[in-house]
Amino acid sequence: MDETGTRARTRRAILDAAVSTLARNPSASLADVAAAAGVGRTTVHRYFRERSDLLSAIGAHLMELVATTTERARLDDGPAIEALDRLCQEYFELGDGFLFAFENPQLADWESWDSETEADQALTRLIERGHADGTIDPTLSTAWVGSLLWAMLYAAWQHTREQGVPKHTALRLCLHSLRKALTP
């Protein structure tokens, strides 16, 4: 087995475990993260010397996941509103990470949050295409539609977390509400 591949998988397992653990309990220790990842605490420290290193890596990891899920949503295929549904479904699966990011102000210094990414540009192009093809109300600005997408996702994530609603139900409500809000 390639050591680089093993290291990459271990790092990703630690990051995924950190996201889900810290989303549930922001004050969780690195030992808690290690246990959730199925590795020893020294292994976590080998990858992330300090908690701040882990938090920075989570930010970068989330941005990578956004890029991957944006590609997987195939934004250029079919009517724009259907592509937006696919994007919303993909982003919905990143809920733990985004809830953690949105609810922890110390993460506001993640450099990549402030820069426009290819995923941001792809969303803008999708919304503009929806305006042009008539599937997204052209009276709603691109910025408004983007903000509405994130607000609906946040509401769905919170609905699952706080109300105990099954994820598939929260996602269905999110998609239904988003379509109702955006359809001309």
TrEMBL record:
Keyword Transcription assigned to the entry: answer is: yes
Specify whether DNA-binding is a keyword of the entry: yes
Segments forming domain HTH tetR-type: 8-66
* Matches recorded under InterPro entries: HTH-type_TetR-like_transc_reg, HTH_TetR
Residues the UniProt record assigns to the DNA-binding region sit at: 29-48
**Pfam family membership, one:** TetR_N
Print the keywords alphabetically: DNA-binding, Transcription, Transcription regulation
Q: Which residues form the signal peptide?
A: none
PANTHER family, per this entry?
Answer: HTH-TYPE TRANSCRIPTIONAL REGULATOR BETI, HTH-TYPE TRANSCRIPTIONAL REGULATOR RUTR
Q: Write the protein's name.
A: TetR family transcriptional regulator
Taxonomy of origin reads:
Bacteria, Bacillati, Actinomycetota, Actinomycetes, Streptosporangiales
